[in-house]
Design goal:
Elements: E1 2-7, E2 17-21, E3 30-40, H1 42-49, E4 58-59, E5 64-71, E6 83-86, E7 97-101, E8 106-107, H2 114-134, E9 142-145, H3 153-162, E10 166-171, H4 174-183, E11 187-190, H5 196-203, E12 209-214, H6 221-227, E13 228-236, H7 250-254, E14 259-261, H8 272-287, E15 295-300, H9 304-312, E16 319-323
Parallel strand pairs: 9-10, 9-12, 10-11, 12-13, 13-14, 15-16
Antiparallel strand pairs: 1-2, 1-4, 3-5, 3-7, 3-16, 5-6, 6-8
Helix pairs in contact: 2-3, 2-8, 5-6
Length: 324
């Protein structure tokens, strides 16, 4: 028997329910994985709330670490008992055990423990593709990171410093400002107390930043527009403050011929080769200390509804790991 979380309707955390299921043997190309640690991510709340529609009944969670327990027909390159991780796109990580496609798994190095991996796979992979393959940040560029102490934000800060960027971060509290500085931010702005765009322009001698990483969305869209240098890039990669809608493309011309990307991870991690190359880089950055998992809290897996409430209320720090 496996225990899994599912939803039969969208809504708040209360719609998450736990059920026991009999798992069939893994099918062709599949692996049975027993979870040892599960990652919590904002996208999970989007699936639960209906912001990102999914089929019903729906399973939640894309990020997990565990042990290979059985191999389906045709699976090669993996062995029973091997430590593996996944960050999707198949959902269902909120479970004790599950079957999933073998090509969505990556092998974990012995140097990375289960909880660290569960905290880092989705966020670390997101950071890698945002910095290195979407924005292609170069040494010497000035970059703005919204929510610089958040789960992805603090990884962006450390990664950007490692590649030689000047990093400006926004945060909501003095405590989070200290966390952003510890991650390597050169300048930290408390967005509730200052005019962020005005301060960004002052820091950059009026030019603005070459790249903005905006995981907030609607609440920071105008700030991002006003902070970006001529021909600069806004990477809008999340909706924590609401989805950006009603975009007037002409405003990009008026603000300096700006570029905007609304990327999604699985357009950058399509093939097994892309996954391996991306995570070789993630684990390299982890080994050199440029990024850290920064696990702020853990919850029992079956208390995931409480974890969702804390995440959406802004009460979590860094990454959250769920323990089966």
């Amino acid at each position: 028997m496996a225990r899994i979380a599912q939803i039969t309707r969208t809504g708040g955390p209360e719609v998450i329910e736990w059920v026991d299921v009999d798992l069939p043997p893994p099918g062709p190309g599949e692996v049975r994985m027993r979870n040892t640690a599960v990652g919590l991510n904002f996208i999970d709340t989007y699936h639960r709330s209906g912001l990102y529609p999914i089929e019903m009944p729906g399973r939640l969670g894309g990020e997990a670490v565990g042990i290979v327990e059985a191999l389906g027909e045709g699976v090669t390159g993996l062995a029973i008992g091997e430590r593996v991780g996944t960050f999707g796109p198949a959902r269902g990580a909120y479970s004790t055990d599950r079957n999933l496609p073998a090509d969505q798994l990556i092998k974990l190095p012995d140097s990375v423990d289960d909880r660290t991996a569960a905290a880092l796979l989705l966020k670390g992979g997101t950071t890698e593709y945002l910095v290195e393959r979407c924005a292609k940040v170069e040494r010497g560029q000035a970059v703005l990171v919204h929510a610089a102490a958040g789960g992805v934000g603090h990884l962006l800060v450390g990664w950007l410093k490692a590649v030689g960027a000047t990093v400006i971060g926004t945060v909501g509290t003095e405590e989070k400002a200290a966390q952003a500085r510890a991650a390597g931010a050169d300048h930290v702005l408390l967005h509730k107390l200052v005019d962020v765009a005005k301060e960004v322009r002052a820091i950059t001698d009026g030019k603005g930043v070459s790249v903005v990483f905006d995981g907030i969305g609607k609440a920071t869209w105008e700030i991002s527009l006003a902070s970006t240098a001529r021909r600069g890039l806004i990477v809008s990669y999340g909706n924590a403050g609401g989805a950006v809608d009603g975009v007037d493309l002409a405003i990009l011309a008026r603000r300096g011929s700006l570029f905007v990307s609304r990327p999604t991870m699985f357009d950058y991690y399509v093939t097994v080769e892309e996954r391996k190359a991306g995570f070789d880089r993630v684990f390299e950055m982890l080994a050199k200390g440029a990024i850290t998992a920064e696990i702020g809290q853990t919850f029992a897996l079956e208390d995931v509804a409480d974890a969702h409430r804390a995440l959406e209320a802004g009460e979590t720090k860094g990454a959250t790991v769920l323990i089966p």
